[in-house]
Design a protein that fits this description.
mainly alpha, 72% helix, globular
């Protein structure tokens, strides 16, 4: 029986798998942002406020991401905003409104909070775009992957 020869390995991981170094540094950057976001969430303790703040921050981060290292969105977007905001908490609060006040009050609350989040995200993006025009990023490639 003849066997097909195995390809020689040059020590690099197979295609599609990230190197351990960049993966570990990405995880650490996300964790760093998550610590700050969860601490702020604990301090504020109002779901509508933290979700609105998160929408504004994510809008600002996305508008200022051009020309910045990948770490900018890992720390700020995935880590900070991800741990600050809560979709599941928002849905639970909606369910509580349905149970207590009925569908129409819950629907009005849902619409106002959704509209508020969209407006705050747009404000954050507008501020970020204005800041990008005024002060373009001067960061180097130190933290890029």
């Amino acid at each position: 029986m003849s066997r097909m020869p195995l390809p020689k390995s040059d020590g690099a991981p197979p295609p599609g798998r990230p190197l351990p170094g960049p993966l570990l540094s990405s995880l650490l950057l996300v964790a760093l942002g998550a610590i700050a976001g969860s601490l702020l969430r604990w301090l504020v303790d109002d779901l509508a406020v933290v979700n609105g703040l998160g929408a504004f921050a994510l809008g600002w981060l996305s508008a200022t991401a051009a020309g910045r290292p990948r770490a900018w969105l890992l720390v700020g977007g995935v880590g900070f905003c991800g741990s600050l905001t809560s979709f599941s908490g928002w849905i639970l609060e909606l369910h509580t409104h349905i149970q207590g006040s009925g569908w129409w009050v819950a629907l009005a609350w849902w619409f106002l909070e959704l509209l508020g989040g969209l407006c705050l995200a747009a404000l954050g993006m507008g501020l970020g775009r204005w800041m990008q025009r005024r002060w373009p990023p001067q960061t180097g490639n130190r933290l890029r992957h």
